[in-house]
Design goal:
By secondary structure, this protein is α/β, with parallel strands linked by helices. It has helices at about 1-30, 65-80, 100-110, 125-135, 145-160, 180-195; strands spanning about 35, 45-50, 85-90, 115-120, 140-145, 165-170. The protein has a single domain (about 1-170, about 180-195), classed as Rossmann fold, CATH 3.40.50.
């Protein structure tokens, strides 16, 4: 009896671990050919979608993920690899505005304000990607984030019929932020749950905003 209970417990633990590993591997393999580390090799897209994060970490210091993404997006623009930039992030309250901070950072890096569009309802990666298509009218785009995040965003985009390339912003050493790496494992697995349940952004636009139109 005890042995049977132990076997059941082992199976109960191993199945979720197996699914976690498989889901992460599927996303990584599927996204690989769409990831680019240099501006020389990445194809031109009219619009870059920059995925949001806070510009500050918990202790109040600058967030390297944020600043590296802004530098990568500005680099794409200045090298003529994109003509417009859509910044997408969380703006649920007047006191927390990721897209606004992203726009301001890009302007400081020499990107003209007139080519920057803001999506203030990008609460999740899923929201940012789907809203880029449904609200901003993008059937193709370049996504900008760190490689581990781009893998997930590319998979979501392709599942929703979007032609996509992704530019990998400079990463942050894993020893400085192990928590983000662990969270990303579960976020990749959650992609498949979103697909199975038909998850859609909670906020949609009434009309498409044609970027550059």
């Amino acid at each position: 009896m005890v042995n049977r209970i132990l076997i059941v417990l082992e199976i109960a633990v191993l199945i979720p671990v197996f699914l976690l590993l498989i889901s992460n591997q599927i996303i990584r393999i599927t996204a690989e050919n769409h990831l680019f580390d240099s501006t020389e090799s990445i194809p031109y897209n009219r619009v870059a979608l920059v995925l949001g994060t806070s510009h500050r970490v918990r202790d109040g210091g600058p967030n390297p993920y944020f600043h590296n993404r802004m530098e990568a997006a500005a680099d794409l623009f200045h090298r003529g690899k994109v003509s417009y930039i859509l910044v997408s992030g969380d703006n649920r309250t007047p006191y927390y505005n990721e897209p606004g901070q992203m726009r301001d950072a890009l302007v400081r890096l020499g990107v003209p304000d007139k080519v920057i569009y803001m999506d203030q309802a990008g609460l999740r990666t899923l929201d940012s990607v789907i809203r880029a298509k449904e609200v901003f009218g993008l059937d193709s785009m370049t996504i900008v984030s760190q490689r581990f995040h781009n893998q997930r965003a590319v998979y979501i985009a392709r599942q929703n019929g979007i032609e996509v390339a992704a530019y990998n912003a400079q990463d942050v050493p894993s020893r400085q932020d192990d928590r983000t790496r662990v969270r990303e494992w579960f976020a990749k697995a959650n992609v498949f749950w979103d697909i199975l349940t038909g998850k859609q952004p909670p906020v949609q636009g009434e009309e498409s905003v044609i970027i550059g139109g």
